[in-house]
Amino acid sequence: MERREEQPGATGAGAAPALDFTVENVEKALHQLYYDPNIENKNLAQKWLMQAQVSPQAWHFSWQLLQPDKVPEIQYFGASALHIKISRYWSDIPTDQYESLKAQLFTQITHFASGSKIVLTRLCVALASLALSMMPDAWPCAVADMVRLFQAEDSPVDGQGRCLALLELLTVLPEEFQTSRLPQYRKGLVRASLAVECGAVFPLLEQLLQQPSSPSCVRQKVLKCFSSWVQLEVPLQDCEALIQAAFAALQDSELFDSSVEAIVNAISQPDAQRYVNTLLKLIPLVLGLQDQLRQAVQNGDMETSHGICRIAVALGENHSRALLDQVEHWQSFLALVNMIMFCTGIPGHYPVNETTSSLTLTFWYTLQDDILSFEAEKQAVYQQVYRPVYFQLVDVLLHKAQFPSDEEYGFWSSDEKEQFRIYRVDISDTLMYVYEMLGAELLSNLYDKLGRLLTSSEEPYSWQHTEALLYGFQSIAETIDVNYSDVVPGLIGLIPRISISNVQLADTVMFTIGALSEWLADHPVMINSVLPLVLHALGNPELSVSSVSTLKKICRECKYDLPPYAANIVAVSQDVLMKQIHKTSQCMWLMQALGFLLSALQVEEILKNLHSLISPYIQQLEKLAEEIPNPSNKLAIVHILGLLSNLFTTLDVSHHEDDHEGPELRKLPVPQGPNPV
């Protein structure tokens, strides 16, 4: 490949002339890149080396940098330069040089089979790139040739070294294909060619994996190689023997992670659902992992339980429709669903004692969608089977959503608390979705549990249990119209009975009341049961967000029923605003709430309330306006103007009756008195 003239050039990295890309200069620049303490020199060296890699001279110096007397960093650069030249400048290579280039790469890979692993990998990537560019015409049986060449007995390298080098080459080939810059029409040809070539790869992998004499490092590599090939959408039935061997390898702790990766990749490929018979054979293999899973949970081995759960979820989530279609196998699929349920309810608090349960949540959406997509008759059969499963799921999710003890929670980091918050939001979304399957019976179920908990005299209940049940209610009521539910009156009646002992429970009580504000607008007689709780909470800075947002919802939805309570609401709000209990954004929300509230009063009432509410702020503004402008009084002025504009945004007397009257009255112009603003 020494076929280009070197080009002289200007000056550059260190003492090396900029474009004089000789072996010596490349070595100097690499030394500078790795060992020079000066960052500017490092950057200069890196730029120069990048130019060197794409220069015509790279064909010349790359081979020399691979000499056995060079250090691995230098050899690595040589191998990388070869890969760049082959993958990006393929059209520069004359066709009559393909064979010699191929032979040189094979020779180098054989040398490095017992040398530096990082250099070996780069050389394998370079040969893979060459193979992809030559397939299928210029090198029709590329993969079979690779296998044959590395199995030749006359090689100076020992059998294990050759085997590992071949496996490395076979592993990087599909990876290089996925990232290659081949034009679209070539990509299709090469993919088809590789699909045929897997016939030369899989028997070898099976043999190596099942051979008792294969050392662990070889089997590890085999699993990684299989994992790489299945992403080329190899038919699932062709992978059957290797998948079974990978299941067997799960018992070996050294091979566990690679086996999980291989199985999950094989099961998750989009095309797999066409091979229903193979999928049905996989169910018993997955169910066979249950003892290992329970053992792992008992021993607190999070990695093993996580890996087994990934396999169960991959099969259930990707193929629930195909497996539900096999009605005669409904029991084995139900057993898989129950195994996933075990993973959802895995003991311990997420994310501190376990990280597995969150993997399963999407599965429950998918399963429900698939059941509800069947025609009426089949759906009725599956509803009968799966409704009890989904009721059990609700219990499991509410148990997982429970806070740990106050003492334990105190030890959690802020990051763990945030992850737990997000996890609870995911649970909330799942419960809301499950409502579609279970309907009103789900609310009755939650209400009965809460009622039993709050009225039982036998055992003292934990606040965590109460909070989780309310959280379930709130999750559903926030997005689903519960106006027709017959359990909400009972729930509103239960809320004042809850003895609120901590912030998390108080927050959830507030958010639950807020979620029921539309129901309260239709049942105004119940407002008095919950409004005192909300006004009381306004005075607690720890409940700032939940109490203010709940008051705002009540004032927006129920404003025509609030005049009897208006004086009290305004007085409490004024008090907390003056005491500066809340942060700026909550103060703004509170003003919006008061705007909604006042809109429903008579004009004289509005004016009377506005005078007492706004006068202190107007006086402050007058005082601030006389001061010399500075950053702190600017903030105060902006804050007051924000409060006033938020109040006026929602204070709208023109829409006085439109929520209460029929459409024929709504068209009448509202008698316009003076606007209180």
Q: The biggest beta sheet, please?
A: none
Straight-line N-to-C gap: 86 Å
**What's the overall average pLDDT, rounded?**
91
Oligomer kind: single chain
**Global geometry:** globular
Strand content: under 5%
Round the Cα radius of gyration to an integer and report it: 35 Å
Number of helices: 32
Structural class: mainly alpha
Query: Which blocks of ≥5 consecutive residues have pLDDT under 50?
Result: 1-18, 657-671
**Helicity level:** 55-70%
Number of strands: 0
Short key terms for the protein model shown above:
mainly alpha; globular; disordered N terminus; transport; protein transport
Could you describe the 3D structure shown?
This is Importin-13. Its main location: cytoplasm. It is found in: Cytoplasm; Nucleus. Residues 45-111 form the Importin N-terminal domain. This protein is an all-alpha fold and 677 residues long. Among the domains are: 275-499; 520-653. The protein contains 32 helices and no strands. Helix 24 (503-515) runs parallel beside helix 27. The longest helix has 27 residues, at 184-210. It is globular and about 100 Å long. The termini are far apart.
Q: Could you give a short description of this structure?
A:
InterPro entries: ARM-like, ARM-type_fold, Exportin-1/Importin-b-like, Importin-beta_N, Importin_beta-like_NTR, Importin_rep_1, Importin_rep_2, TPR_TNPO3_IPO13_2nd. This is Importin-13. By secondary structure, the protein is mostly helical.
